[in-house]
Structure formats: C-alpha cells, structure tokens
C-alpha cells in the first residue's frame, strides 16, 4: 500500500510520556479505541442472542427423545423463540430488522437473556 502511494510515509518509534508533541493525544485516542473494542465485546452476547433467536437454536431448546422441548419462561410457558419474542412484547419484525438493539434491551429487561 505504501509503495503505491506518491506521498512519503515515515514510521518512527517514539518514546512515550516524554512530552513529544501529539504523542499524548495519540495515547488518549488509542485508549479510547481500546475502550471501544471492549464495548463491542459487550455487545457480542447481544449479537449471539440475536443470532440464536433468528436460527431458533436458543439455550432453552432441548431435545427429549429427539423431540424439541423448551425450558420454562418466567411466565411458565415453554420458552420457544416465538414465545419469548411475544412474551417480552417484541415482534418478529424487531428480530429481523436493523441491529435488534431494542429487542436485546427487552430481553434484558425481562430477565430472559439466559433462555436465549
Ligand atoms: Zn413467557
């Protein structure tokens, strides 16, 4: 990439925390960047929950004598994907549209993340 560029790029190691102009700012930005990647680790469980709901392979799904069975929802109904979505007041549309962020918030608010 650098070799195809007409501008000259110079890489140089810079000692940290010795007052080099711009380096402290770069350090702050790097820390912010690493905090962002921690946040995306946080949303990973949300992404996993959505993927599980979309595929129907949620944690509450068990196979008993090769038949599908579901753990109980807090409302005591079988916690199938369709039931969970219905029970938390969400819609299938929320599951399939956008990031599903609102849906994940509903799952958390109703304490059913461990079923998904
Ligand atoms: Zn329920």
Structure description:
InterPro entries: RNaseH-like_sf, RNaseH_domain, RNaseH_sf. This is RNase H type-1 domain-containing protein. One of its GO terms (molecular function) is nucleic acid binding. Residues 1-35 form the RNase H type-1 domain. The two termini are 44 Å apart. The chain has one domain. Strands 1-2 form a two-stranded antiparallel ribbon. The chain contains 4 helices and 2 strands, in the order H-E-E-H-H-H. Residues 37-42 have low confidence and may be disordered. With 116 residues, it is mainly alpha-helical. The protein binds zinc ion. Residues 73, 75, 77, 83, 87 line the site of zinc ion (ZN).
Evaluate the radius of gyration: 23 Å
**H-E string:** HEEHHH
* Structural domain tally: 1
Mean pLDDT value: 83
pLDDT < 50 stretches:
37-42
Biggest sheet features: 2 strands, antiparallel
How far apart are the first and last residues' alpha carbons, in Å? 44 Å
Q: Tell me the number of helical segments per DSSP (H or I, 4 or more residues long).
A: 4
Bound ligand species: zinc ion
Helix content: 40-55%
Strand content is 5-15%
Strand line-up in the sheet with most strands? 1-2
Structural class: mainly alpha
Protein name: RNase H type-1 domain-containing protein
GO molecular function, one term: RNA-DNA hybrid ribonuclease activity
InterPro entries: RNaseH-like_sf, RNaseH_domain, RNaseH_sf
Domain RNase H type-1: 1-35
């Amino acid at each position: 990439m650098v070799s195809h560029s007409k501008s000259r790029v110079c890489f140089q190691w810079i000692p940290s925390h010795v007052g080099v102009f711009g380096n402290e700012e770069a350090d702050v930005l790097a820390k912010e960047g690493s905090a962002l990647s921690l946040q995306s680790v946080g949303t990973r469980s949300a992404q996993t929950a959505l993927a599980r709901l979309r595929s129907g392979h949620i944690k509450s799904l068990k196979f008993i004598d090769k038949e599908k069975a579901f753990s109980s929802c807090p409302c005591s109904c079988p916690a199938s994907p369709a039931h969970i979505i219905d029970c938390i007041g969400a819609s299938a549309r929320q599951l399939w549209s956008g990031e599903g962020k609102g849906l994940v918030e509903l799952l958390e608010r109703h304490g059913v993340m461990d079923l998904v």
